[in-house]
Specification:
Bound molecules: the ligand Nc1nc2c(c(=O)[nH]1)N[C@H]1C(S)=C(S)[C@@H](COP(=O)(O)O)O[C@H]1N2, molybdenum atom
CATH architecture: Alpha-Beta Complex
CATH topology: Sulfite Oxidase, Chain A, domain 2
Distance between the termini: 38 Å
Radius of gyration: 19 Å
Helix content: 10-25%
Number of strands: 13
Shape: globular
Order of helices and strands: HHHEHHEEHEEHEEHEEEEHEEH
CATH class: Alpha Beta
Number of domains: 1
Oligomer: single chain
Strand content: 15-25%
Length: about 325
């Protein structure tokens, strides 16, 4: 079996989204053949049978929602990036069914006056609202997703950050027993993301526990994930277990993999291209075919009016 060791892989090879990853070899050699094997096949069959993960009630509508047509539930839950479960878009819907989401706690710690551990049951009892947001992946596609959740701000206020809390780190689940993807050194697991404290406190920054009127399906980051609509999709970390307030800027998982391609800020910006492709346009999943004229990507994914002031005076080519 041909699986590369960590030391054999150059950053250009482990970066996602491109020719360098050589997905086919990786997956055929690793995941499909030895690592998942029979269990994988069983998971494939149980996807349809699993049905919806549970309905959420009492959801308020939000003024912050886009009026664009939401992407279908089917597309939102079958075209995913969740590398812990494999790098193909179809992998998470199959393999993430094994993710253990109960019991689940979220530890909130670091530079805060009142550190606290939240049980998922308590978080699900908070007042929930629907936020229909565009999600723009750095790969060049987008969706419109009716998230259900609450503002991260409301959680942050409960723990009272100290004056030293300049950044917020999000650490996501690491379950080697359920996650076939973490056996490959695609990223430095666990997947870690970060925000500046003012970005974290922005009212658009959401903690999602559901989509449409359902609890989050595993492949979309159950039971709790971040959603930052003006940034590339990878900032929106799935299946969060720890939120840490820190003084220094976090080195995020994608920066560690390829810092020349993925930066800490990762604001959606049609004027700053990825080194290997343009970011000027995007394809809407479920609507745009390969012959459809390309849609223009909007500055800050269309949320410039709300968030541009956070970056006043910053050179966005340098702080990409
Ligand atoms: N833990 C974790 N979170 C993650 C990812 C991942 O691989 N692992 N992928 C990111 C990327 S690249 C995108 S585009 C979004 C996709 O979210 P969706 O599948 O719910 O649309 O999740 C982000 N969050
Ligand atoms: Mo992405």
């Amino acid at each position: 079996m041909l699986i590369k060791r960590r030391g054999d892989i150059r950053p250009s090879e482990v970066t996602p989204y491109g020719v360098y990853l050589r997905r086919r070899e990786f997956l055929k050699a690793g995941l499909a053949a030895g690592l998942i094997g029979a269990a994988g096949l069983a998971a494939t069959r149980s996807v349809g049978a699993q049905g919806s993960p549970g309905k959420l009630a009492g959801i308020r509508k939000s003024n912050y929602s886009t009026l664009e047509k939401p992407t279908s539930y089917g597309d939102v839950t079958s075209y995913n990036n969740y590398y812990e479960f494999g790098t193909e878009k179809s992998d998470p819907a199959i393999y993430a069914q094994k993710l253990r989401t109960r019991p689940w706690t979220v530890v909130v710690e670091g530079e805060v006056k009142r550190p606290k551990t939240f049980g998922i049951e308590d978080l699900l009892k908070l007042p929930l609202e629907e936020r229909v947001y565009r999600l723009r992946c750095v790969e060049g596609w987008s969706m419109v997703i009716p998230w259900v959740g609450f503002e991260l701000k409301s959680l942050i206020e409960q723990v009272e950050p100290t004056g030293k809390a300049k950044f917020v780190e999000f650490v996501t689940a690491y379950q080697p027993e359920t996650m076939p993807g973490v056996r490959l050194p695609v990223l430095d697991w666990p997947y870690v993301e970060g925000l500046r404290i003012d970005e974290a406190m922005h009212p658009l920054t959401l903690i999602a526990v559901g989509l449409y009127d359902q609890m989050l399906p595993n492949q979309n980051g159950a039971p709790i994930r971040l959603v930052v609509p003006w940034k590339y999709g990878f900032k929106s970390a799935k299946s969060i277990v720890r939120i840490r307030f820190v003084e220094k800027q976090t080195r995020i998982a994608w920066e560690k993999a390829a810092s020349h391609e993925y930066g800490f800020y990762s604001n959606v910006n049609p004027e700053v291209d990825h080194p290997r492709w343009s970011q000027a346009t995007e394809r809407r999943i479920g609507e745009d075919g390969i012959f459809t004229p390309k849609r223009k990507t909007l500055m800050f994914n269309g949320y410039a009016g709300q968030v541009a002031s956070l970056y006043a005076g910053m050179d966005l080519k340098k702080f990409f």
